[in-house]
Amino acid sequence: MIEQYTITTTPKYNFPHPATDITLPQRLVELSIRSLKNALNTNPIQLNQQTIQQPFNNQTRLNLKPIPLNPKHDTTVVAAIDTSSMKIGETATGMLIAIRGATVWKQKSSYRYLRIGPFIIHITEENKTEVYNALQKAYSNTQSENQQQNLQNHQIPTRLANLLEKWLQTTLSKTLNGGIILFDGSLTAGTPDTPKGLMKEILNTARARGNVALAFSKMTTLRINGILITDLALEHKPPYILEVEGLRTKPPTVMLGEVYIAKLTRGNCTFRLDIDKEIPAEQRIEAVERLLGNDLLSQGYPETLRLAHILCTFTANEVIAMQYFATRNYGLKLVNRPNMHKLLFGPFGKGDNTS
Amino acid sequence: MRLYKKEGNIVQILSFPDETVEKGDYLLIEDGEVGKALIAQVIDVQFASIPGVLEELLRSLPDGGELIQGEDIDPLEIAPHITYIQDASLLICKIRATVESESLSPSSSWLPSRSKSTIKKLSIPTLLKLVKVGGKLPIIVGGTKDSSLLTIDASDLDGRLNIVTGKKETGKSHLSKLLMLSLVGYKATVVVFDLNGEYLRLGMTADGKRNAYYDKIHVLTPAQNFKVPFKHLNLHVLLGILIHALHLPGTSAREFRRIWQSLRDRDMLSLHELGEAIRNWHCNQHVRDALFSRYHALVNSGFFTDENASTMLLEECLFKAKEQGGAIIINLRNTSSIDRQIVVEYVLGKLVELLTSWKLKAVFLFAEEAHLYLRETYWDDIVTRMRHFGIFTTFITNQPDTIRENIYRQADNIFLFNFTNEHDLEVVSRAARVDAETVKSIARELPPHHCLVLGKVVKDFPMVVKVKALDVETMGETRLFFKEAN
Fold it and tell me: What pTM does this model have?
């Protein structure tokens, strides 16, 4: 069941093959199978639940200063990580969730990927903390810095996907040399999703191997004078970044990156960009310039990161297949539980999410 | 397979990749609780509309149109399930009958249970047995997809109007030869209008030896071994030729009738005397010119003679065939358009004459590309009036629009080969014994030598058959310039 991380070694993309951290934690596979087997004796899965992908985001405040960029074409490997989670059904005692992660890297002129999952896990009120803690230990070898006993059911898919993402980030930071690692989200740590220690360790490891970690946020809550920073209309010719200064975060949240607003191509798309704080300012800017010279950018967003997102996202077809898998392999009988909103309010009942 | 939807007489069935079902296959949808089953035929196979398939396909091609290279670590082995769902197909099926207590009815008014019905493939032999296709006079048409033989009953061609159609080089003539020889084998009398000389050597095997039909194939080549003694001509037949084949106006036809009667009264009926009579007849000069031009057309055809010797009489061949069965092949190859019409008018006129006088019981007429020699008014005659005389026609054509719509509507059996042209399929689909969807969907994808059999011979259960090979000199091949080089 355990697969080796099999990226071929190349002069520029020199992956060592340590056997410890970068093997797929068997714990996840075991948990997945065990939870499904336990679900056999519980009530049927509910099919008509919302199946929305869970984005990761964060909140801050800022000041601005523009920096023009010149693409640098010296060959650099650009790698990106993203994960997805999805609730694929409900049982009387819990829910069935699926998680999957993808690493994409641009090697020479072509993109390659490694996709892990999907893992299907049956989460119940009784086992949710146990599952989360066990996975956290197996993935990051750290114990929770926050109170995991308050874990809400709706947070579980996101949290589990986050664990997988952190593991993929750790793996990449330990295997890539002199490259650019793209994360989806920010470099804010100290949240339940992102323990400070683990995030620091990832960044330290990446930095030690000459890598620079860049985190792109598609959505941000940062505002200046009430306007979202990504909505500010500035009269500069892209590509450029704007440095955000004087940011404060409430403990225990810490920002491990310098925050910028990145407008890398023409058009309306602007992103929040976090770059590892411990890297000197010039190198941070150079890293963005190397990204511009080595990756495609569509709507100002790196193609590598876009592909990572696309590859890990669950399609409706896959959801049906996973439901079919759970039915066929674990004997779960699928039943459509009536939607109470539709039942009570007819066309005015818009589903469980709008209550 | 699971029953998904029913609209009118169309059912949609969800099928999974490990269930191999193709167009033309029959399915039995059985509802055990009500003790009934539907027989449905697959007329189209589509991809099932699975949500998310487009996204699935799109994300596999994001790298400039090239497949993105990578590795999937899938410890739970979900991927085969994804492929399984993705490759599910939707079978569009036409309901052909309902089976209840082993009896068939064409009804599709009941609805089988979606959750409890079982769906299985119905093999052709089982279906044939169920619908009682075949009979005492079997004709093996060929093999079906599940390696069984499709056998029709010759009596289902008796008294029927048949159409064999399909585009060029798909095997129409081959099937018509098979039907023709099979009928001859059952001692039927067959007349063939052979436009391209394809039927001339049906009495020989492919390697040039005589076969069982050798003595039953009578080839009549107009102006060679098929000449008509002028004095044996019936006035009605001759007037038919003059009016319909040679377009003689009515006034001139009346004068001709008088000339004929005058010659007959004097017992001087001959081509030569007819010419002299027209020359000396007191009539309008235009009428004389009109009669003369037709007279020369008759003479130049070489089909009529004043001699009795060295001519093969059509009647003789027909009477011979009446006893032992046989085919009279009217070889129209190398015959001009006018002469062709003269010969056809004569043959049809003679057949009607012999049939009305009960000298012949019935005749199976095979007409290839009939629009090239059959006058407009004969079409209706053939399908209505002549049928009552005992002329049972099989039209063979690669241009379905040359056969009029009312012929299709009255056709009892249609042997349909491949057509890709929408217009052609549209024409054929007007036939009363078939639904347009079946024709358009199945005929479009028939491989060469495969035929969709529709009508009474298959009890209105359309079946696809690969027409069996014949050990005869078929002579239907196209002559090729580059044949040697190839």
Answer: 0.72
